[in-house]
TrEMBL record:
Highest taxon in the source lineage: Bacteria
InterPro entries: CHP03086, DinB/YfiT-like, Maleyloyr_isom, MDMPI_metal-binding, NTF2-like_dom_sf, SnoaL-like
Residues of the Mycothiol-dependent maleylpyruvate isomerase metal-binding domain: 11-128
An MF annotation (GO) of this entry: metal ion binding
A Pfam family of this chain: SnoaL_2
Domain SnoaL-like: 195-298
Identification of the protein by name: Uncharacterized protein (TIGR03086 family)
């Protein structure tokens, strides 16, 4: 399969998944833990619009901030499909001529850039399928081609922070490819719950936090030593977190890492605040999580020091 055909087919697959997004799914979490469905589609739409610009000869400086922010407006599907069409046309016209394109990290061979784009569309198509409940299967020929290209680049990409830590492969070419890009091919309701919960904690949104907890949830707080304090039931847990947010100036909860495996999960995080003297303080810790029926039933917290 030639590179232009491969690229075209990855965009076709992406477009098929985009048009299947329901109106009530745009705020749903995705395997890209910081992104909702809308965020994910906006990211790829931006990439496609950048592709058309760069393949057409524009420089990064000439594009400037035109493609920053929300690009989807009130017609997210139409905007995304239009961008994909523009990208497909620009690649078909430019790829045969070869040469380089100016990327943020330097001039890059045009074929290498197209490989990057193809892999991004293929993996993000799976992300979107997983988030919206559509068919997650990827074309085995596309999987094999992208996996072969990425095998020699995975270590460098991970070292540069371009992909997440390697995920767990559950066997087979598709699962292996997704793992190499930091995905878990068994991403499901518990992963989605974790993403919503962590996003809500990061926003300090107590109502949204509690939506992810079972009625009989348990929270073991980090203090006081040596065993912490155990709080049982949704009302008790809510009260503790409400007090924590109320007593903290400029609270900021940041997720450093999350691992979900079956009905268990581990969250590594930091929690920061503003001190009376205006400086910033923080603690770092981990949560040991248990899920039941797609909600968090137990959160056991531990901190450093």
């Amino acid at each position: 399969m030639d590179l232009n055909t491969l690229y075209h087919r990855t965009l076709e697959h992406w477009a098929d998944v985009v048009v299947a997004v329901r109106d009530d799914q745009w705020d749903a979490p995705t395997p890209c833990s910081e992104w909702s469905v809308r965020d994910l589609v906006n990211h790829v739409t931006s990439e496609d619009l950048w592709t058309a610009e760069l393949m057409g000869g524009s420089t990064i400086e000439e594009v400037g901030s035109r493609l920053d922010g929300d690009l989807l407006g009130d017609e997210p599907v139409a905007r995304s499909i239009d961008a994909a069409k523009a990208a497909t046309t620009s690649v078909a016209e430019r790829l045969p001529r070869g040469g380089t394109v100016p990327l943020s990290f330097g001039d890059t061979d045009v074929s290498e850039y197209v490989w990057q784009l193809a892999s991004d569309h293929l993996v993000h198509a799976w992300d979107l399928s997983a988030a919206t409940g559509t068919d997650r299967r990827l074309d085995p020929a596309l999987v094999a081609a992208v996996a072969g290209w990425f095998a020699e680049r995975e270590e460098a990409y991970r070292g540069a922070g371009a992909v997440a830590p390697r995920g767990l492969s559950h066997g087979g070419g598709q699962s292996d490819l997704l793992a190499s890009f930091g995905r878990d091919s068994e991403w499901g309701p518990n992963h989605a719950c974790a993403a919503r919960f962590l996003r809500a904690f990061g926003n300090g949104d107590l109502d949204a936090i509690m939506l992810e907890m079972t009625p009989d949830c348990v929270f073991e707080a980090t203090g006081s030593a040596p065993d912490g304090v155990r709080h049982e039931g949704k009302d008790a847990v809510r009260s503790v977190w409400a007090q924590m947010f109320a007593d903290t100036t400029d609270p900021l909860f940041t997720t450093e890492e999350q691992v979900v495996a079956g009905d268990r999960a581990l969250f590594r995080w930091s929690y920061g605040w503003t001190e009376p003297d205006g400086g910033r303080g923080h603690v770092r810790g981990v949560d040991v999580i248990r899920f039941r029926d797609g909600l968090i039933s137990e959160k056991l917290s531990y901190v450093k020091g």
